[in-house]
Every structure is written in structure tokens, then in C-alpha cells.
Amino acid sequence: QEYESVYRQKSLREVPQVWSALLFAVFACGTLPRYLRDGQDYSDTSRKLLDLSTDDLTRDHVRTAVLTSVFLVELNRKSAGWTWLGIAVRMGQDIGLHMSNVKGSYIDQVVDRPVWWTVYVCDRLLSLELGRPAMIHDDECEINLPTPTDTSERARDSVKVRATPAQSPLVPTVQVIRGISKLLQSLKEPVISSLTLQYFDALFDDCMELFPAHHQVNSHGPLDPHQIPPLIYLQNARLMLHRHNLTTKNAPGSRSQVADECTKIAKRTSSFLARCMLDGSGLPARSQGGHEPWRGPFISAANAFLCTHIWRCSLFLCFRAEYEDALICARAMAAMGSARPVNVACGRYFEFFLQRLSSKLDERGDVYEVDEELLALVSGDLQGSADSAWVWNDGASRTAANASTHLSPFNSTPLTAIDEDYSWSNWDGIVDTLTRLHQNQRQRQQPLQQQPPIPLTLPSQVQQPPAHLASPVSPGGTETPQSGSSRIRIADIM
Fold first, then answer.
1. Percentage of residues in the chain having pLDDT higher than 70
2. 8-37 burial string, b = 16+ CB within 10 Å, else e?
3. pLDDT of 348-380, one tens digit each?
4. What is the pLDDT of residues 205-231, one digit of tens each?
5. What is the DSSP letter of 102?
6. Cβ-Cβ contacts under 8 Å for 352 (sequence gap 6 or more)
7. Rounded distance, CA 87 to CA 257, Å?
8. E strands, 292-430, in order
9. Contacts of 321 by beta carbon, 8 Å cutoff, 6+ apart
């Protein structure tokens, strides 16, 4: 109603100032993923209109703050986004969004739930991504979980909006994110025990069962890119769980198992991405005039968390020579291109990693698991946290420190440097390198597959040599019996 009134009057004078701030915050997020400079102008206007010193906070204050956080995170300015998310949390708690509003109307409850749980989801995702403590405690959230009907502001009209679960990605997302709460505590341990790993794997399996049948791993049909974020959040939590044990504090044999488990998770992610690239009939989408039809929906559905997860998966897939799956991830990253600044940074890092990997493969023909430089590079942003990094304070891994100083995708990107960052676009080079590595791998494997197996003859199957080859005389000069039980000398077999 407010928007229609403003649209007719062509003026913001008749609406509250906080509503104007919310409007410009929506405009800022709406410019993603293509018009970042326009989005920055909208976001600046929104922040100027938002009064942080007022005691009369409303739901729109919370919405504006959380949208500002989302916009800044998508610009890869995660510290600023983290700060604004904290403001949104405090505002929401101040007006009681986390409490069960038994006195409020049904419409107020329907509107409040998505607002609070959106703040909750952002808090958990950003805490896991940055390795920082969550600001919201589960035991303090008394509000009910969202339902598929909590999808639209139209609920204000006292008409209960009917919606299917597929229309509300917030519902499965919240279920997944609630499983991350306990994970944040376990990630503080130097090494996560096997029992804890089993517990979280079972927990995440239960979360996976909440998704529809066509979202399951064993499904092979096409997948709408807009439905993939909750699945990626779950896969990313699994990857973070197991990748934590890649530290040098773990046993060498266990570190190899960690890399194997992370590779399995990465392969699941690549299968989801591959299904996003299918057409309605389940076949690879054909290019239309040089444009692949899946790219547009994929770009609009992607966010910064998806970019960084695909990047982590790509590192493990290449480390374990799963180049076919790595190519799927590379195609997804190339499709997003410069739509997200963090994706460009991930691409630069990935290119550097492939250069080091190719160099070592050319030198040795294989990648040794004890190569600390590659392990440090595969660990990625683990080296950016004082709690999880090991290259800076571990003597055994000191040789990897130089490689880890390469530009991290998680460095904040000021908007004034966006043009410089966007100058990198060597996605074709990454795809070509992966294609070459895949072809070389197949060429090395082909001779082994074509070589016939060497027949092995058991002693009981050894036949007697022809009479003209058998020696009738034993070394002692006596005649050797010619029975079937007589032994055959090595010389006779030769």
C-alpha cells in the first residue's frame, strides 16, 4: 500500500523516514548482481535515512539493517556486513521479534516470523563463513518456526496466503541452519573426534531428509537454481565440519581420510550443479545463439556463500584428481563471472592453485598427500583465521607459508577497487587447464586399461614339460622317476 501511494504521488514526503530507508535498501539489493555502483548509491542513501539513535524502533528498522548487511556481504565487504547484522540482531531483540507474540494479531505473527528467522539464518551463515561466534542463542528464541504461508507481505490483508513449501526457501533453510548452531561450538576444538563427526553426519542426514524427493542426492532430474541455496548451505556445513581436521594437529593418515571425505562432499555439490545445467527433459541444456539458458537463472539465484562453497569444492576435487567434477564447478563459477566480487577473487585464487598443481604434476607425475604446500592451498580460508591456521605457527608446514600469502578471496573489496578486481576474467584459462589435466589423466590411465592381465599359474596347474625337455637324470646321476608326482626343476620350466 505504501509503495503504491508513493508511486502515484512521486514523492516520499508522506511516508515515514524509516520506510524510505527500507525502500532504498531494497533497491540496493535489487541491483545485484549487475549494477553494483548503482547499488552502492542506493545503500548509501538508505543508511543516511536510517536513524540509529531513535528509541522508537520498528520492524522496518530491522529489515533495513539486515538488507544492508546482505548487500555488503555480497560486495565481499564481510566485516561491514557483520557489523550491520549485529545492529539488526539488537534491533530485533529490542522490539521482541525473538519472543512469542501471544498478544499480537495473527497477521503480526505471520509477518514477524520471517523477519526474525531471516536475521537468524544470516547470523549462522556469516558466523560459519567467518569463523566467528554467533550472536543469537538458540535457548533465547521463543518464536515459532516459519511456515510455508509466511512468504509474503500480503498477509497484512487478513487473508491467509496459500503457498507450497517450494515457494518458501526459508523453511528448509532454517531447518538446516539450526543444525549449524552446535557445529559452531565443535569447530572450536583443535581436532574434532570421530564420534562427533558421526553425530553431525547423522544430524545432517536427517536435515537432508526434510527436502523433497527431487532434491535428494540420488535424484537425477533437472533442478531449479533458485532451490539450490538450502542444499548448498547443508553441503557447506558438512565440508566445514570435515575440513576442520585437515590441520597438522591431526595424524597424517587421518588427514588423508579428511581429504577423501571432503572430496565426496564436493562431488555431491557438483552433481547438484550439473542438474541445474539440465533442461526440462533432463538433458544438458543446449546453447541458444552462444548463450546457455541455465546461466541467467543460476546467476540470479547465486550468492556469495554459494561462490565460496563452489571454490572450496573445486580445490578438493583437483587435489584428488576429480577433474570432470571440477570442470562442472568451474563452469558454474565462470557463469557467475563478475556478478559477485568474491567470485572473481575465488577465480584468481583457483587459477594460482592450478598453476602450482600443474607444476608439481609436471615434475612428479602425481600429487603426494604429504605435500604441505598443496594441503595449505587446499585448506583455503582456514589459513585466514588465527584459530584454524597452521602455516604461520607450525614448523612442519613452514614451507607452505609463502603460498598461503596469495590473495585470499575473503579480503574485503572496497568499491573503489571493484574495477581493478574485475579486470581478472581468465575463466577460459581455468577451463582449459582443467580440460588438459583431465585429458592427461585419461592418457595415463588408458595404457593400464589396455594392457592384458598377466596370467598367474598355480603350482597344482603346472603341466609336465615335453619329454624332450625333461631331464631324466637327477643331479646325483641317478635316473629320475617319470611319474606325475615328480618335481619339475626351475631350469626345465624356464
1. 73
2. eeeeeeebeebbbbbbbbbbbbebbbeebe
3. 999 999 999 999 888 876 665 668 889 899 999
4. 988 888 888 888 888 889 999 989 999
5. S
6. 377, 406
7. 41
8. none
9. 367, 437, 441
